[in-house]
Structures are given as structure tokens and as C-alpha cells.
Amino acid sequence: MAQNDLNKVADHFDLFHQPEYQTLFENKKQFEGRHSDEEIARVVEWTKTWEYREKNFSREALTVNPAKACQPLGAIFAAAGFEGTLPFVHGSQGCVAYFRSHLTRNYKEPFSAVSSSMTEDAAVFGGLQNMIEGLANSYALYKPKMIALCTTCMAEVIGDDLGAFITNSKQAGSVPVDFPVPFAHTPSFVGSHVTGYDNMMKGILTCLTKDKKTETKNGKWNFIPGFDAYTSNIRELKRIFNLMGVNYTVLADNSDSFDAPNEGEFVMYNGLTTLEEGADSINAEGTIALQAYSTEKTLNYINSEWGQETAVYRPVGIRGTDEFLQALSKITGQPIPRELEIERGRAIDAMNDSQSWLHGKRVAMYGDPDLVMGLISFLLEVGAEPVHIVVSNSNEKFEAEAKALLASSPYGANATIWGGKDLWHLRSLLFTEPVDLLIGNSYAKYLWRDTGVPLVRIGYPIFDRHHMHRYPIYGYQGALNLLNWIVNTILDDLDHRTDIPGKTDISFDLIR
Ligand code: SF4
Questions:
Q1: One of 153, 194, 312, 391 is an active-site residue; which one?
Q2: Domain coordinates of the chain in residue numbers?
Q3: Is the alpha carbon torsion for 494, 496, 497, 498 positive or negative?
Q4: Residue with the nearest Cα to atom 3 of ligand 1?
Q5: Per the CB 3.0–4.6 Å rule, which of 25, 35, 257, 452 could disulfide with 80?
């Protein structure tokens, strides 16, 4: 077979066009009991109608392509920011394989997480023995400084108690008694990856800061990124902190875990926040989160248990970044540096340059609540009009906040927030109330294929494009990146639709 020839390695685009696969696909059809091509075409057309939309929106028991992932994925994403930390998922092996591959496919980066590999017997008798052996093996083999535990659905359904299991495992000698094993219950039949992030961050901070409160504050500010797939945002934040003289701790900095340099040697642990910094975070002046909906429980805990001031800022676009920098200026007592003022001016100049292509463009979007809030704010700034806003992991608080933001601009007047809806709902919306632009993760490719609406890939996961996470969307630099992706998608689409010389190609862009 051609794919066994090392000089002719076929990628997945070419591989499945080879005759053996084509024959296989053809043969498979006889077992599918499919309808005729005419009938399929008729139903496809019907699914684009208002009649179908009404039926689609009345479904209650079925979800099709929700724009969210499950809780443990968010939990291990949070744990990856701490130094020497091994994420350990108590539950089925297949779930953990999914989390690892999901992260690896997004970041093109190896990612380590272990599992207690529960099987049928553990599902009946409980997973304590798996935990005892799993912790002992993980500690001996991978030599972590901390093991962060979360659960899959299976462990939650049978009611395994992580706190008690950890105590029993320590008594059994799996890990030393003083070895940090923070935990979070992360049942995926409720919440999503953003809830899992929140649960795990709270769990880790609870564990690390136990008995660490001192009489005096440490003069630092804590910053919690939340489930932010753009790990370069953390680097951008640190650049801004350094420019403004902010004494900070990032809780927790996973930018290297998902974007490590290739220096010829495998490094298993790349979390940049030390356990000492995590422990001392209880003595900070205050805590600022960059997302609201992936940090709700953590901020409540910090506020009520640590007695710290907390706030949320989303430094997306001009308004969001302005508010964030003003808050930093208040914290430090320092003015906003000239360097950042110049960056602001450049971002505004760029937005003016592109404004005519963006003004009045109708936009559909989906994603996590905090990302969507940032994108709405940015779109309103450039005069685009959000129309369909789908957030599968929505809640009432988010919807109220989003509505207030939309009401603050005339460009928000035609928007509807579709909380709890999925991508199959969005497909109906796109056919019945068309838009000019779609913003979403890689799964929006199917919507783009179906509807032809140009797609800007922003969100998580992005499997079918490379390096997006290496470009921040925070700060004025981030505003430039968002603008670049959005306006150039519109121009690319225009080029593809006007490519007949002398007929449709009447642009003067390239005139001599
Ligand atoms: S939803 Fe539950 S069973 Fe499915 S991958 Fe997530 S944790 Fe595992």
C-alpha cells in the first residue's frame, strides 16, 4: 500500500481518496439502508425552512453538537498551570484519552494526564483500590510535586468520595501523608469544561493555602485566567504587568504547558506557577479574574474564606482593555505607560482602516460565555451587528450580562441570545435568518459548508488550523489580532466570490 512507503506518506486528505478506501466506502452503503439521493436532497432542503426550525427548536430531550466539553477537561487544564503537577482523573480510561487528545489536537503539543482506569468491577464495588494503586504508581513513575485529582461520570454515578479515598490512599502508603493531592468532583452530566476549571482551581487553592495565612499581606495581586484557550494571553498579560510594575501571581500559568519550546528534550511538567506561589496567594492584596463564568466558585471562596477583594476584567477590544489597564493603574498607583498608549492608538487606527468592511455586518457566533462577552464587546466597537449568539453552557447571569452589553449600543439591537442551544439549532438560525459572518471553533466548519457563511475560527477547540492560540486576543495587540482574523476573512470570502475577470472581479484593490 502506498501509505507504507515512507517517501509517500499520505495525509488524511489524500489517504481516504485511495481506491481501497473508496471501495470500502462504496461497499458500506449497502448496509446503511439509506434513502435515495433524491429523498436525502429533499429532506436537506426541508431542514433549511422555518417549518423545520420550529420543530428543531421545540426539541427537549436531544442535544446535537453542543458547543461545550466536559468538566474534567477543564479541571486538568487548570491543574496544568502549577509546577510539577500531574492531573489524575479517577474514572474510565477512555475519558482521559479523550481529554489528552482534545488538548493535544488543539495545541499540537503532547499533554500528560493519568487515569485510575476504572473498569466493570470498580464500577460495581467502587474505585478505591484503583485510586490506591494509581496514586502509588503515578508518584513512583512520574515523580510529580503535586497530583491534582478529578473525576469522570462513572466515578460520580457510583458516588466515589475523593476526600475519603485520598485519606485511605495516604494511609495505605500510596503517597506521603504531606504530599499535596488537591481534588475536585467533576461530574460531566452537569456543567461543562468551564465549571470543571472552576472546581479544580478552587480545589487546588484550598489545598495549597491551608494554614498559610500570615498576619501581613505579600504586596502581590493574583490573576486567574480561567478556561482561556489562548494561552498566549497569559504572556501578553505578563508583558503588560511588567510594563506597569504590577507585582503578580498568575493562578495558574499554563502557557508553557500548551506551548513549550522544542529544545530537544521532553519536559513532562511545564506549569509555571510554583506551589509556593500558589500557597502564598492567600496573602495577596486581592484577586482579579479574567473570566467570570469559569471562576465563580473560586472567587466566592477567595472572597469569603480569604477575605480578599475580588474583581473580574475582560481585556478584549479597546473598552475592555481600557478598563483593565485603568484597574491596574489604580492598583499600582502608576500611570498607564506611553508604550501601551501607542499600542492603543495603533489598534484604533487599524480599526478605522477596516471599519468600512465591518460596519453593519450581521454576525452569528457561539462559544463559552466569557469569550462570547469579549467578542460581543469587540464587534460592537467596530460597528458589526451580533445577530445569533449561541452559548450551550449559558446561565441566567450570563444572559442578563450579555443583554445589558448589547443594549449599550445601537449595533446590539438585533441580537438574540440563544442560551443552552447547540450547533444544530444554529444551523436552522443561519438558514432562516442569514448573516454575513460566523464566528466559532473548528466545528463551525460544517456550518460553513452547509450555509456558505464565511467562518472566522475563534474559540476552543481549533483542530483544523494551526497556531491560533499563539496569538493573544487580550490587550490592544489582541484587538489587532481579532480585527485581522475578522476583516481578512471577509476579504478572502469576497475574493472567492468575485473571481471572474471583467465580470464579477471589478475590484480596484490591485489596479496598477
Ligand atoms: S461526559 Fe463523562 S463519560 Fe463522557 S468523556 Fe466526559 S467524563 Fe467521560
A1: 153
A2: 71-208, 221-332, 341-497
A3: positive
A4: 153
A5: 257
Distance in Å, CA 98 to ligand 1 centroid: 9
- SS3 annotation, 449-475: HHHCCCEEECCCCCCCCCCHHHCCCCH
Other Cβ atoms less than 10 A from the Cβ of 110: the count is 12
- The Cβ of residue 475 has, within 10 Å, a number of other Cβ atoms equal to 25
Tens place of pLDDT per residue across the chain (512 aa): 445 678 878 888 888 999 999 999 999 988 888 899 999 999 999 999 999 999 999 999 999 999 999 999 999 999 999 999 999 999 999 999 999 999 999 999 999 999 999 988 888 888 899 999 999 999 999 999 999 999 999 999 999 999 999 999 999 999 999 999 999 999 989 999 999 999 999 999 999 999 999 999 999 999 999 999 999 999 999 999 999 999 999 999 999 999 999 999 999 999 999 999 999 999 999 999 999 999 999 999 999 999 999 999 999 999 999 999 999 999 999 999 999 999 999 999 999 999 999 999 999 999 999 999 999 999 999 999 999 999 999 999 999 999 999 999 999 999 999 999 999 999 999 999 999 999 999 999 999 999 999 999 999 999 999 999 999 999 999 999 999 999 999 999 999 999 888 888 877 777 76
For the domain covering 341-497, report its CATH number.
3.40.50.1980
Tell whether domain 221-332 is in CATH 1.10.10.60: no
Provide the 10 A C-beta neighbour count for residue 95.
21
Q: Which of 351, 381, 341 is nearest to 240 (CA)?
A: 341
490 contacts 454 by C-beta, under 8 angstroms: yes
Residue nearest to atom 4 of ligand 1 (CA): 95
Cell readout for 224 is 486567574
Q: Which atom of ligand 1 is nearest to the CA of 92?
A: 8
Whether 221-332 shares its CATH topology with 341-497 is answered: yes
Residues 75 and 87 sit within 8 Å (Cβ to Cβ): yes
Note the maximum CA span of the chain.
80
Which value, in Å, is the radius of gyration of the alpha carbons in the chain? 25
Is 150 known to be catalytic? no
487 catalytic residue (yes or no): no
Query: What is the Å distance from ligand 1's center to 70 Cα?
Result: 6
CA of 202 to the centre of ligand 1 (A): 21
For the domain spanning 71-208, the CATH number is 3.40.50.1980
